[in-house]
Amino acid sequence: MAEITLVEAVNQALAREMSDNKNVLVLGEDVGIDGGVFRATAGLLDKFGDERVLDTPLSETLIGGVSIGMAAQGLIPVAEIQFMGFACSTIDQILNHAARIRNRTRGRLTCPMVLRAPFGGGIRAPEHHSESTEALFAHIPGLRVVIPSSPERAYGLLLASIRNPDPVVFLEPKRIYRLVKQEVPDNGEALPLDVCFIIRPGNDVTIVTWGAMTHDSLVAADKLAEQGISAEVIDVATLKPLDIETISVSVEKTGRCVIVHEAPLSGGWGAEISARLAEHNLFNLLAPIKRVTGYDTVMPLFRLEDQYMPSTDRIVGAVNEVLKFE
Amino acid sequence: MAEITLVEAVNQALAREMSDNKNVLVLGEDVGIDGGVFRATAGLLDKFGDERVLDTPLSETLIGGVSIGMAAQGLIPVAEIQFMGFACSTIDQILNHAARIRNRTRGRLTCPMVLRAPFGGGIRAPEHHSESTEALFAHIPGLRVVIPSSPERAYGLLLASIRNPDPVVFLEPKRIYRLVKQEVPDNGEALPLDVCFIIRPGNDVTIVTWGAMTHDSLVAADKLAEQGISAEVIDVATLKPLDIETISVSVEKTGRCVIVHEAPLSGGWGAEISARLAEHNLFNLLAPIKRVTGYDTVMPLFRLEDQYMPSTDRIVGAVNEVLKFE
Amino acid sequence: MRKSPPERSGTVARFEVNFTRYLDANGKVVSTPLPRWANDPEVLLPLYRTMVQTRTFDTTALNLQRTGRLGTYASSLGQEAIGTAIASSMWTEDVLVPSYREFSAQLWRGVTMTELFLLWGGDERGSDYQGPREDFPVSIPVGSHACHATGVAYAFKMRRQKRVAVCCLGDGATSKGDFYESLNAAGAWHLPVIFVVSNNQWAISVPVEKQTAAQTLAQKAIAAGVTNEQVDGNDVIALRTVAERAIDEARFGEGPRLIEALTYRLSDHTTADDASRYRDESEVELQRANDPINRLKTYLIKSRMWSDQDDQKLNQECKQKVEEAVKQYLATPKQPSQAMFDYLYEELPVSLQHQLDAALISEDHG
Amino acid sequence: MRKSPPERSGTVARFEVNFTRYLDANGKVVSTPLPRWANDPEVLLPLYRTMVQTRTFDTTALNLQRTGRLGTYASSLGQEAIGTAIASSMWTEDVLVPSYREFSAQLWRGVTMTELFLLWGGDERGSDYQGPREDFPVSIPVGSHACHATGVAYAFKMRRQKRVAVCCLGDGATSKGDFYESLNAAGAWHLPVIFVVSNNQWAISVPVEKQTAAQTLAQKAIAAGVTNEQVDGNDVIALRTVAERAIDEARFGEGPRLIEALTYRLSDHTTADDASRYRDESEVELQRANDPINRLKTYLIKSRMWSDQDDQKLNQECKQKVEEAVKQYLATPKQPSQAMFDYLYEELPVSLQHQLDAALISEDHG
Ligand SMILES: Cc1ncc(C[n+]2csc(CCOP(=O)(O)OP(=O)(O)O)c2C)c(N)n1
Ligand SMILES: Cc1ncc(C[n+]2csc(CCOP(=O)(O)OP(=O)(O)O)c2C)c(N)n1
Ligand SMILES: [Mg+2]
Ligand SMILES: [Mg+2]
């Protein structure tokens, strides 16, 4: 079987669900004949026609809102926002409607939609093309926020998200869209939502991360292994609702935790994980919890983006720091 | 001197700054002849005319965006969003422009605007009229988020926010708009931004809170005092940038911390405070940090809102729990 | 293939906005021919009954609010004709996407008064309509539901269903970007959706001429290439004529429509509002003469389809129905705390179980 | 006092959209009379020079991008006339609120090519224009800057300044709600702001007829009660005529205007795009005949204001200027990490000091 990239896995999952369920449709800017600016929807127009592969006007609020109407009618819209920076315009619809319509109507109307957006920096793109605002969405009750970090998980988690009867914000780490290839059988098997994945077992420290930083965290873990340090790496995968259990058990074992994300420190989703640990694991923490994150600054234009992004060096440095505590 | 309410203090601060600085203007829905649905802008139209007290079309995105253009031109727009639930539509403008324009132009253009909105539950209002989404704004780099919790602080902090050369989101706890009265001399004296206020000193536990919950926290502290427990209550006031120093010093003293806010638990601003303490205060924490917050549910319609809102009982309960640890 | 520009200078597009009115304020016929059903009591009386029922409901709701038994309430006084005409032009399987002020449309469609009371009494069960299961709940964020109606219509079109989505909005809502984006997409996709703007001339304290420089709200549709028209929103015969045609055309593939219905908000914006702060009572007084219920009643009586006696009886019946609904409403026990969690997701994620437990403990202690 | 509805059925509003063109694709005059300055080389040659300079810049930018010395870049090939005409109709103290594709307008206004390279090379200093200090930086989020232009114009009006804000947008941007909200507010407040829509018929892969059912984009303004017109966007004489009048009228209190300029995007959307995926080369080929630079050149040569020799010299000069800018650009050292913090707030809050320290340490170690 050929190995495929993360973005190809997204494409494969979309094609699979569209084949299996005629209620699934994709919509967004340039998802049709262009196949999406990252090619995530390439080929779908030819296979499924322009009613189910819908180029929208340039209107992000509409993309969010129209999906809600479709979903209430039993369709399963998978909407693409071209870059996460432009997803801000959907927050009103997502927070005030998508995440609430089941609750508002006591289950009479539901909202089985997926809002996909590429996120994260590191691709030398113009302003607003590098955002990591997952925390804004993860704070919203009634929503799910899912972030894959490998081709396998992209396929399995996207299938799960599309099949999930509630709204899911599905954020794709575009820096690793084409970085790693894996064999991903197109077998229609979903992966579970609402759980973290331990993607590298270890004993000395727990590194908790998601998205593209998963890759850097694994590289850091390799470097640490050379120093004789055994790092357990957890891919949070579903940020909301948060599977703190898996993280908590790991930290109970290692006694040390480093959280890594690209988004600015303050109010990043790392804060929630740290806060939960501060409540549940206080007495088995051997060292302060460190967060390796973007700064509380505007993401700089790309000449400085390497200075902004958490690097493997910063991750290794933080691990070494928490290991200093006895 | 007559005592005034929190919303009257807001009005007094607006009138003061508008008198002192002809560049200040207020805009929003119904801020003119109606004087604002909560009367925060009452009387301003008569005093300052309809160019400086501007009724806008029903367009929240515009209200956010037009303020940026005004501010870049050296005006100081104080924009009102009628209820925080409708502020979602401004996030695109606030995050992508207001908070960035100084950085984007290396200081050439700046954005001295204030976005005011009443927030919080407890007034038996319709859906979307009870939101507490301060964490969404507090995560945004380049922004300030300020929340007063008394007439005095409303006056002093609003003056400071208007005079601040950068964008400020100023959230007013509407449940206590008229709850407490204080003498607030109209002396034009601002209070400092970027610092927390210790509003009740104590030794056994630190209660960290903001907005309307400040009031409930003080009531809880009274109850605790009857039990012989001395609680220090901190009004965070400026959520972003966060003065963790004051909180950290207090927790160093008390060894115990309870954080109280109305917003849902997960990803609430309490998470950030807790995470900072987990890093800086780990070894002087005598007990896990507890958060008393709204649930990770949609804020219910008002028949159930008392069940949702953190109560003084829940605060007292949490304090008693953290005191169980030796 | 893309267009090249026109050869030379000149006019490249022309538009007009048309207005429809059959009855003047005194119930006198001012345009002919009337639609055939305008002489048919079987068509007109149900319209009249719903309008009267809505007004009775309204009066009672205001009373309940004043006595602390209802939350903030938005009266529809003077606007009862619009929803009635629209809903009566819809098929059962169409979908209504209402604003918070179209009680008459909701009642016609089978939403119960008890449900309406529950909603305005702060209880989510008020949006679990037992009648029109696919109708949307009231949207409190002004304008945002226009996107939903567009999505619903897209589903209809994609499934080749001959169904129409009908979205109700206010004049204020036409200033919202989401309204415009919806109208534009509905036009681009040629969807079976009708946007009905109840132009009651006020958005809380902002009169329509401060809302926009557009001389009509119907012309908002020109921006989206969408057919549009204006109608007297207090003339139920004109309204129904216009609505029936629009809905029928949308149903059979002729695309979306914007209908601006000219009416007037006779009441305060809501019970939380005091309109005397910003508008003259004299203006309201003048507008009372346009009352849609009186207008239809006069016409019905003149046409011998109705009598004062019938009217008294009807009012009595309506009151009785409202009183029953009030009883049911007041007898509905509060939901348990558990209800905050029950409909958040299809299934409660395990990680939320301890929050639910905490809420239940609080409830016991509270 | 609020309006009552019209007496009876009928047409209540009429609108039309007018188009202006003076030169056809071959530089032949197709409408008369020409504006007086159409025979004046002192007016026309500066326009021509800026258009040629912009195209030279464009070619070089594409080369820099291909060789890894610039980031993603959005070419303005074929659209150079619009910005040139608009900017040349503005006063220095007016404010330009540009899209990312109006290089010609920016160059005319005094933004340097070095600054443009810096921006597209990922350096914030590229938006610290040393020339037009009050002009807005490029807005990457499509449409959102329409609100800013409206705010700028409000400031002008409030201060009784005779200044105009000019906002450039694409056809795709006209589908955004923020564009519509801005247009509507500009109309309601009667502001001195001009919205110039460069309708290049594509928004990445979406052709304008999929963007909207509106047959013109000019008519978007009807929704807001705003004056509007359409113009040939490759005819700099028509453009400048229309722009001058609009800006002048706005300046002297006649309110906002929407100008739709019909043009064509000859290049890929950006260097990250491959337009061959979604449009036929044959279509592009046909449109090349509409090139605005050739059109003006032909006209200039026919009118004996210009010669092929002048043209060669100009091209030479333009290349030289670009090369100097490239040199300056490439010689500009990267900002230090500190720069991430320097312009975040007027003064760095103390609580951010330790983040800055950490960043500086990382930098040393990196
Ligand atoms: C997005 C949004 N902004 C503000 C409000 C507060 N608000 C409620 S109703 C209203 C005025 C609505 O006017 P209109 O659309 O004309 O409807 P009407 O109330 O007159 O029926 C406002 C500003 C809201 N509900 N939603
Ligand atoms: C709000 C927003 N959504 C999406 C994008 C991504 N994007 C960049 S340019 C573009 C198309 C813009 O088309 P148009 O307005 O016609 O301008 P043109 O590029 O043709 O000049 C899109 C979708 C963006 N920059 N901003
Ligand atoms: Mg209204
Ligand atoms: Mg375009």
Give a short synopsis of this structure.
The complex is a heterotetramer, with two copies of chain A (326 residues) and two copies of chain C (366 residues). Chain A has 326 residues and is an alpha/beta fold. Chain A has helices at 6-20, 44-52, 60-72, 91-98, 101-104, 134-138, 151-163, 212-226, 244-254, 269-280, 305-308, 312-324; strands spanning 3-4, 24-28, 53-55, 76-80, 114-119, 144-146, 168-173, 182-183, 197-200, 205-209, 231-235, 238-240, 257-264, 290-294.
Describe this protein's structure.
By secondary structure, chain A is of the alpha/beta class. Chain A has two domains: 3-183, Thiamin diphosphate (ThDP)-binding fold, Pyr/PP domains (Rossmann fold); 197-322, Rossmann fold, CATH 3.40.50.920. Chain A has helices at residues 6-20, 44-52, 60-72, 91-98, 101-104, 134-138, 151-163, 212-226, 244-254, 269-280, 305-308, 312-324; strands at 3-4, 24-28, 53-55, 76-80, 114-119, 144-146, 168-173, 182-183, 197-200, 205-209, 231-235, 238-240, 257-264, 290-294. In chain A, the strands form three sheets. In chain A, strands 3-2-4-5-7-6-12 form a seven-stranded mixed β-sheet, with helices on both faces. A five-stranded mixed β-sheet of chain A has the order 9-11-10-13-14, with helices on both faces. In chain A, strands 1-8 form a two-stranded antiparallel sheet. In chain A, helix 10 (269-280) links the parallel strand 13 (257-264) and strand 14. The radius of gyration of chain A is 19 Å and the shape is globular. Chain A starts with a strand and ends with a helix. Chain C is of the alpha/beta class and 366 residues long. Chain C has two domains: 19-335, 3-Layer(aba) Sandwich (Rossmann fold), CATH 3.40.50.970; 337-366, no CATH class. Helices cover 43% and strands 12% of the residues of chain C. Chain C is built from 13 helices and eight strands. Chain C has helices at residues 41-66, 80-89, 103-109, 113-120, 145-158, 177-189, 208-211, 236-251, 281-288, 292-302, 308-331, 339-342, 353-365; strands at residues 10-20, 95-97, 165-170, 193-199, 202-203, 206-207, 227-232, 257-262. A six-stranded parallel β-sheet of chain C has the order 1-7-8-4-3-2, with helices on both faces. In chain C, helix 2 (80-89) runs parallel beside helix 8. Chain C starts with 9 loop residues before the first strand and ends with a helix. The A-D interface holds A 29-30, 32-35, 37, 55, 57-62, 85-86, 89, 124-129, 265, 295-298, 300-308, 311, 313-314 and D 71-72, 100, 119-124, 140-143, 172-173, 175-177, 203-206, 210-212, 272-273, 277-278, 334-335, 337, 339-341, 344, 352, 355-356, 358-359, 362-363, 365-366. Strand 1 of chain C pairs antiparallel with strand 1 of chain D. One magnesium ion (MG) binds at residues 170-172, 200, 202-203, 265 of chain C.
